[in-house]
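Standup notes
- HV: blocked on the assembly model, inputs below
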Amino acid sequence: MKMVRSEKLIYEYEKRDEEGNVIGMNRAVDGVDIDIAQGDFVAILGHNGSGKSTLAKHMNAILVPTGGTMWVDGRDTKDPMELWNVRQSAGMVFQNPDNQIIGTVVEEDVGFGPENLGVPTDEIWKRVEDSLKAVGMLEYRNNSPNKLSGGQKQRVAIAGVIAMEPKCIVLDEPTAMLDPNGRKEVIRTVQELRRKKKVTVILITHYMEEVIDADQAYVMDSGHVVMHGTPREIFSRVDELKKYRLDVPQVTMLAETLRKKGLKIPSGILRTEELVEALCQSN
Amino acid sequence: MSIKLEHINYVYSPGTAYEKQALKEISLEIQQGEFVGIIGHTGSGKSTLIQHFNGLIKATSGALYYDGKNIYDEGYNMKELRNQVGLVFQYPEHQLFEVDVLSDVCFGPKNQGLSKEECEERAKEALGLVGLPEKYYHQSPFELSGGQKRRAAIAGVLAMRPGVLVLDEPTAGLDPKGRDDILDQIEYLHKNTNMTVILVSHSMEDIARYVSRIIVMNQGEKMFDGKPKEVFAHYRELEEVGLAAPQVTYIMHALKAKGMDVLTDATTVEEAAEEIMRSFHD
Amino acid sequence: MIRDITIGQYYPAKSVIHRLDPRVKIVCTLLFLISLFIQKSILGYLVATIFLGAVIYMSRVPLKFILKGLKPVIVLLLITVLFNLFLTRGGAELVNFWIFHITEKGLETSVYTGIRLIYLIMGSSIMTFTTTPNSLTDGIEKLLHPLNKIKVPVHEVAMMMSIALRFIPILLEETDKIMKAQIARGADLDSGNMIQKAKAMIPILVPLFVSAFRRANDLAMAMEARCYHGGEGRTKMKPLVYRGRDRAAYALTVLYMILIFVVGRYVPFHIWIF
């Protein structure tokens, strides 16, 4: 079963000069084909301005393609009749924790989505409680979001999406504004959700260490998909990644440096243990 | 021209329910030309600390000497201190406001009372230092990309020609290349101008790569103060307070535990590679 | 400094007052405010004090916290009281010194005005302290619902209010940060005449507006992503239903109003305390 699929997806917008006259077209996404199966954990990588966020916004029909097609759970996102179904099946978490929390109390915010869907009151309460429990924020249900840490706010935002019972969660750089602890907290939450609720997870990021557990990864540059494969395949092409303004975790970089110096180490090392193992064997 | 703190204490909203001692008995000295990193988890007091350096926050007790003079003495020229100690806040691009990049960078020098020509001269020099090409000078700062905005904003502080540059997480939200570019530029600045640079960062990897001294803050107290190798040797204690050492330090420790004959004090990829190669060749 | 403002903040606690239906709190607060103006006697104020005191006690919001809310308006309060004290004429003259004339009537009016204003602020802050902005707007939405028939977009207005309330603390913090950043760049916000001061605000206001627009844009997107499409077909997580305690609260407030009315009418107009 395909959760998210796109074919030759193009998104163009008008470029304007200072007076507001159209002086040309900009292609933020240019002919992208992606194919994401139900239940997968997929990472979309790319530097700022590579088109990865624009692509992500298509998965929730915040943007609709100007060319090509995007299907979410089998529904064409261009079809206005399917708009609310698309948004319900692919929930979205954004970058800035402050700018996506609507409620002034944690539980009210989590209830916002179900309220919009017209879910009956008793059911909303159940969903809110389940979702907050799933992200480990139940004890904060009566708190003001303003008093939470960045990582906690993002977990509340995730709960808000879970409460809508989507099949797929799209996280658009959810950790870009967090400190390392907040980042770990959010990634751990997402992984647990995946295990428990079997939802499809699409993570847009430029932090490479967050994607080593992904089933597959896409790398974007100037609107195109330029690399696609498992994290291991992608991380073994360090020089190419650098060309696309990306980076690899220190352990991958160290393995690569040692390989270039002549040690026999397999390429695409992702974890400390793997490198230690490889070094002990070649010693 | 050193910055010297003696027993600095700072209490937030004293006498209310929110009262909190943000800094406790901080004493330290930073010499002209040093490249210092400050680390600590969110709420450890590091942002409060750096705002003391240019007098934006006044200590509840203690003394702060800039160039030998106590800035809390009566009649001390705070404006001059702020000219000398440039502070770049987190997401500094959120403070851009002028119609074009050049006039925005001129804001600081203009406040220093310089003539229009001098302002522009300094602005251009600062924009050159952060590597922002001339074609952007007359564009609206709001039209630049994220990384370029950040550079323009840092130039806005550099144009005041400070002797000390304090940066609060200058790479937050940038992509890996943007991060390296900014940090390389800061390193270049430090090498070529003898400016003191104080860098606050969450990334241990970045800190280890650039600075020569690390100050670790925890719950308002100074926990460690030393060379990166010395500080990261305490990686267990750092973990206890929500921090960590660079990933390579852990790799070296893991190798050592497996019986390899390596020193564990590497903090950068280059150092680690060298050390591993050495152990292989011995 | 900006952090000191407590008016409009929610104080989380578990009390009867917190649990009351927001409509009850809005209506009763309005009645209480009216009660302050329809009578003018020591006994009446005594009744009002007991009523207010009982509500504050039941709300479990510390009195200190409520009194702190008076701080920002203290200047306004003093001016009003002093104006009344010196400018109201009538009754025996108590003080006559140089240009200052204080009359019995002036003293009385100023004391009453002072008490009125203080109670007015305390009364309404009790409402905001015990009601989350969201349920407050829910209450207003439901109370004003009949206006929907004459094409007043009640739901939209209520939603806008609740969003505004949520973003006030965030924007205040942001203002603080931008001010500090511009001061660090040598901005001088304190000296100069009115025009210079106004001009000095530009480096703060422009980034603040830019940020507010950016946030508004982000939030609109986040709301749409969560299927927000106006009030139509929307259910409520916390629908407003009157319960026993709400009816009791109405009854008590009505009783209080009757008492105030009776006291105002049948007890001699002024029992002089001085």
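- HV (later): unblocked. Chain B has a mean pLDDT of 92. The CA atoms of residues 72 and 197 of chain B lie 23 Å apart.
- Next: hand off to the docking folks.
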